[in-house]
Design brief:
heterodimer, A: mainly alpha, 72% helix, B: 248 residues, alpha/beta, 6-stranded mixed beta sheet, 38% helix
């Protein structure tokens, strides 16, 4: 079951400065997917073991955040009007939970290498496994919270204010695109934080700002109709987080579905981020290992 | 002599003494992006070449800070050399830091499963060997196997860590002074295990300051001084060279 950690079938292994190409790197990580699974499971076990409520936290935390935002933006500011009549609450949770995944990765990826330095400097495993593990760990928390969205949508459906559509089939697409993006980001953040500890703090600040850079609390249409110059709108849309958020929204609310061009742009950006992440990680890996 | 298992070609590693870790973002801006990294570069190891054959037991000797552990890390694959390369034929069992990889919040049993799997043991293999591992680690550990490792003494951790590695079937063993830990009884057990591993034809790569250990296990010695390979020959020659330097 457990795959060979690395090396060719003969067990021969070369440890040199330029360790293989991008594809051979990805293959090495793929071979270590059993290790990846173990590390993710370990992180989740530790996380849930220490708290009484355990898994419930994965539901409670996003729910409480969602309830707060819903009170402010849905109730006090009545964002409902900009959504073609679809329920704001569904819009909010669909986007917010995907954002929780992103922000969780941003903050936890920074410590993916620094936090497990002793493990990394004694056991040979492709180092990319550690940041990627954080992406998956947070993904499972996202999955765990997904039933909440289903439940809320179900309630609105029973009230006749919402219909489940086949658009939901796009949810896995949204997830895959987001995962590609987050893996790239996690690879960059984890390794740069070893060399420059400021990254960790910087991300903490950035995390708060980024929440408002994408249509999560407010509807996308508000930005479109805000009368901002065309070029500024393009800049706004170029943010991959916008495309990812709209894909998630579109899966639940067909009216929100992004244009094909936007999807193509987002996908391209995410793939570029993924490739940058791998190249960057491989480039700084020798320095990172010395510093750990 | 068997086939080559570890081949090092012109290995070199350089470190930066003024660690970049201490360079804050502020410094980058203050200096206007100019880096002064070149100031304190030094080569921890340079131009190291050797070939180790299957079944050989090699002792690495040298004063503190001459790059012995660095070399071990490179062979273990947890450090990437700046120059040259090391090729290993066969999997490597690193006994670098025995209790590394243990999560404090997991129980002894869970940790064994985790670390065993990280070292490449299969799930079935682990299940079969778990009783053996626990027994090897001793009564104290056995009775605490289902409590979090946080509550273990450092000795217990090391015992458990060694117990896992003792079950690995990897052909190359890297040992870094771990024999110095544990009480006398456990040390005797470690020696026996290592001797048994050697008799199975595995390759041993041992870093130690203990002459008795070195003479006991190794036939060949590599003496490193200031990052350079000075002697590569019979263990006694290497030890003589080392002692010659230390005593004068």
């Amino acid at each position: 079951m457990v795959a060979q950690l690395s090396g060719s079938p003969r067990g021969e292994e070369q440890l040199a400065r330029a360790e293989g190409t991008l594809t051979s790197n990805i293959v090495a990580v793929w071979r270590s997917r059993a290790v990846l699974g173990l590390l993710v499971r370990r992180d989740l076990t530790v996380k849930y073991q220490q708290s009484v409520l355990g898994y419930l936290w994965s539901l409670l935390e996003p729910l409480m955040v969602a309830a707060t935002y819903w009170f402010i933006f849905g109730f006090l500011y009545k964002s409902k009007g900009d959504l073609d009549g679809s329920p704001y609450l569904i819009y909010l949770v669909a986007g917010l939970f995907s954002w929780t995944w992103t922000s969780g990765v941003l903050s936890e990826a920074t410590t993916a290498l620094t936090g497990q330095a002793r493990l990394i400097t004694t056991i040979k495993v492709p180092r990319q496994v550690f940041p990627i593990g954080r992406v998956f760990g947070k993904f499972f928390e996202f999955l765990a919270a997904l039933p909440v969205v289903v439940l809320i949508a179900g309630i609105f459906a029973s009230l006749g204010e919402y219909h489940f559509t086949w658009n939901l089939l796009f949810l896995p697409v949204a997830i895959v695109i987001q995962a590609i993006f987050l893996i790239g980001v996690a690879l960059v953040l984890s390794s740069s934080n070893v060399l420059l500890r400021d990254v960790e703090r910087f991300i903490r600040v950035l995390n708060r700002v980024l929440l408002y850079s994408a249509p999560i609390l407010y509807p996308f249409s508000k930005v479109e109709h805000s009368g901002m110059p065309r070029w500024l709108l393009r800049v706004y849309e170029a943010n991959p987080l916008v495309g990812i958020a709209q894909l998630h929204h579109g899966a639940w609310l067909p009216a929100e579905f992004p244009s094909l061009i936007q999807i193509a742009v987002t996908l391209t950006e995410c793939v570029i981020m993924f490739i940058i992440g791998w190249y960057y990680f491989r480039r700084v890996e020798p320095a990172v290992l010395k510093e750990l | 002599m068997g086939e080559a298992t570890i081949v090092a070609e012109n290995v070199g590693v350089k470190f930066v003494r003024s660690r970049r870790r201490n360079t804050k973002l502020r410094d980058y801006f203050v200096q206007g992006g100019k880096r002064r990294l070149k100031v304190d570069e030094f080569w921890a190891l340079r131009n190291l070449s050797f070939t180790i054959n299957a079944g050989e037991a090699v002792g690495i000797i040298g004063r503190n800070g001459t790059g012995k552990s660095t070399l071990l890390k490179i062979v273990a694959g947890v450090l990437i050399p700046d120059e040259g390369c090391v090729t290993t034929y066969g999997r490597v069992a690193p006994l670098l830091e025995l209790s590394a990889g243990f999560s404090n919040d997991l129980t002894g049993r869970e940790n064994v499963q985790l670390v065993g799997a990280l070292h490449g043991m299969g799930r079935d293999e682990l299940r079969d060997k778990l009783p053996e591992i626990i027994e090897y680690a001793g009564d104290q550990v056995a009775s605490a196997i289902d409590t979090p490792v946080r509550h273990y003494s450092s000795g217990m951790r090391v015992r458990l860590g060694f117990a896992v590695i003792a079950q690995l079937t990897h052909p190359i063993l890297l040992v870094d002074e771990v024999l110095a830990v544990g009480d006398r009884e456990f040390r005797a057990k470690c020696y026996k295990t290592i001797e048994q591993m050697l008799s199975e034809g595995r390759t041993l790569f041992l870093v130690s300051h203990n002459e008795n250990d070195l003479k006991r296990f190794c036939q060949r010695g590599i003496y490193i001084n200031a990052g350079n390979l000075e002697v590569d020959g019979p263990i006694t020659d290497a030890l003589d060279a080392y002692n010659g330097l230390v005593h004068t």
